[in-house]
């Protein structure tokens, strides 16, 4: 085995190639540094940071010092001794906790994929972003003036306290005693209060400007490519996060969001192609719960949200309205997160009683979902952890807490873990499988359940169909995985792509 940092690797090039196992800390950064020296890192590799996170994914600090204090019970400086001691402990625990598959087949191969993606970056039209920033500044100014005029006062719109004082104190908006400036609550007050629409629009535009447009401009490289940093240890469920800037939360669905996404473009002779797993978490729920009605819906390619609405409203599919379907959609995704009546009522705009009735009706129509959820909670109480189908685990040692509110939060997280973590595994497995497709195909971004590629135009249709097929076959569930494909010259104007081989 070979314990490595950059200095060791450069000094001992032969060992770097011949060593049976390379052990290091934060190997993604090392891989990027070594590439500058025209050096690569062959498999197998063992990243101490990723191993520590995999064993205990709810921690916030995965520095070498934090790992040595947590697992070795003492602080040790960065030496061969600490690397060896940590490796011995972590390797043993990964085997003991049956995490070898996740570690060796998913997390370790992913390191090189992420290093390559960060090095490549995605091309951005800087001029378009600068113009968008100016547009947003003008619109934000107009909205500020409208809000100040309607309220009769000038105040800091980004201060929840000052906004609350104006809306609920000075303007007396809302009939209840509840005071909240959260978007969900403000939406319930829109009727007869035009200022609320302006406030919500202001927030959207200000967030796009300050949270995305300005940081993206600041982080652009001299070649106008944006290189985010993907974080493998940023979430407890295995989902990737990103920073500098965060590309995971780039907005969608509005005119301004489309303009922002439109600034991300393909280089000449290439197109962007987005591959999005359709309703992956609901498909996983159907598979793990073995609920026959849910499985049947996906095999028959039914509209799952419409089906749920039909069931909970006790009406025929043909009579489900868009509003009813939205309630069904909210409930479907809420069930994955162990939603309660209070949260569902707030999210769907229902009374608490009606929300509770809908949840009861859901479990009556999909009974095995409830049975599965109870089994997961029992597993968490009995063993202190929950596993997904790949063996990835998350600890729930406070499930028996006497604090009922805390216990409920733990139960909701436990119910969600086998679903969201498997969705994370699937997207990572897809990244590994599709990353090395040869010249003309570049994996650029991973955003939740979507992968964004830059593909050469002359091989576009062939490669798009290959990626779709690969992603849909990356893990066999009891219901089929489905990937939607969209293609275009920029991220804001992607169009549905039909399989060319049909």
Describe this protein's structure.
α13 (280-289) packs across α20 (404-435) and α17 (341-348) packs across α18. This protein is 55% helix and 11% strand. By secondary structure, the chain is of the alpha+beta class. A hairpin with a 5-residue loop joins β9 and β10. The chain contains 21 helices and 14 strands. The model has no long low-confidence stretch (mean pLDDT 91). The strands form 5 sheets. A 5-stranded antiparallel sheet has the order 11-12-8-13-14. It has a 3-stranded parallel sheet with strand order 1-2-3. The chain is globular and about 75 Å long. It has helices at 6-11, 13-18, 27-36, 48-55, 64-71, 80-96, 100-120, 126-151, 160-170, 183-187, 194-219, 255-262, 280-289, 292-299, 304-312, 322-336, 341-348, 352-365, 367-383, 404-435, 460-472, and strands at 2-3, 22-24, 45-47, 122-123, 225-226, 229-231, 241-243, 270-277, 385-387, 393-395, 441-447, 450-456, 483-488, 495-496.
What can be said about this structure in brief?
The protein is α+β, with helices and mostly antiparallel strands and 502 residues long.
